[in-house]
Specification:
Elements lengths: L14 H31 L13 H12 L8 H26 L8 H41 L9 H12 L8 H25 L9 H18 L1 H11 L13 H12 L8 H19 L3 H6 L4
């Protein structure tokens, strides 16, 4: 006997498997692309000297100099703290987007693009509680080699500190809010990125759907790469501002900024508008595979399999 319409099984949202999927996706993704992210940070932080001199001429030059000065493991400087915090960061971002999409879906099952953008923006806003300290610590660790190399060329030495030492130092000198330096710039970047990324990914991913189980693994990877590329390039100016605001140790002649507006105005004045796209190609090369891998792993449904739920 069929059930009456009002007793039909209602769709349910299971948050825990989504969190598990997001955690695994983040760890796998960041482990693969971290060296590119390190290069991106160093390219964004370097400023042009009065005679047009640069510490790094290109991505390849930065790779070569970093490897020559710090070896293979130097390419993973700051990765420990990033992998530690990327677990909750990606779990929050991906799971929150799915959750908000579920609750914003209209009774007829449709989800207009404006609601998709709202879901993405809310997911981006949720993640900054973890993203801000993660990015702050990661940037200091990634940029330490660049500052040390510059100091060595000038006949000076700078003592390198670990992520744990840096965290203790910030907590001691600035309290818990010391870990949230640059939170406004981080929020602008992450919210705007998610508003662009998630609706675009959903649209592309749906194009590859073959049956009720959704698109194949490789299509989610391609959709994540394509959506990540577009979104990364769109918000690169804010990423440059965020990176510079969160860099605590500056090289010789490099400027400190008092606010987002000061950073934007000063950068425009001294370096021109192209400065806001520094590391843009490298950022695309980081974000595209990161989100491609993360989305593909996320949709495998490892969390559902562990908990015995249908993906």
């Amino acid at each position: 006997m069929t059930k009456p319409a009002d007793q039909a099984i209602q769709p349910q949202f299971h948050l825990l498997p989504k969190i598990i999927n997001g955690s695994i996706a983040g760890i796998v993704g960041v482990s693969v692309v971290f060296p590119l992210d390190l290069v991106k940070t160093r390219l964004q932080n370097q400023t042009v000297g009065p005679k047009g001199e640069k510490q790094y001429k290109s991505m390849l030059d930065c790779f070569k100099k970093t490897y020559a000065a710090e070896g293979y493991f130097g390419m993973y400087r700051g990765s420990a703290v990033n992998i530690l915090l990327i677990t909750p960061e990606k779990a929050i971002k991906l799971a929150a987007n799915d959750m908000f999409r579920f609750y914003l879906t209209l009774p007829d099952g449709s989800l207009p693009v404006v609601r998709q953008m709202a879901a993405g923006g809310l997911a981006g806003a949720c993640q900054i509680i973890v993203t801000t300290p993660m990015e702050l610590l990661k940037i200091q660790m990634q940029d330490a080699g660049r500052i040390a190399a510059q100091a060595k060329a000038e006949g000076r030495q700078i003592e390198r500190i670990t992520a744990t030492q840096l965290t203790k130092k910030l907590l001691r000198e600035r309290g818990i809010f010391g870990l949230y330096k640059g939170i406004t710039a981080t929020a602008f970047r992450d919210v705007s990125f998610s508003i662009v990324y998630f609706p675009l990914f959903a649209t592309l991913n749906n194009l590859g759907s073959r049956d009720s189980h959704g698109p194949p693994f490789w299509w989610s990877f391609i959709s994540g790469c394509a959506s990540g590329s577009v979104s990364a390039l769109a918000v690169n100016p804010m990423d440059v501002v965020k990176t510079r605001m969160q860099t605590l140790t500056k090289g010789t002649g490099e400027r400190q900024y008092t606010s987002i507006l000061d950073c934007v105005v000063t950068t425009l004045k001294h370096e021109g508008p192209t400065a806001f796209f520094k590391g843009g190609a490298c950022r695309v090369m980081v974000i595209a595979p990161l989100f491609g891998i993360a989305q593909a792993v996320y949709y495998i449904g490892i969390g559902e399999a562990i908990l015995g739920l249908k993906p």
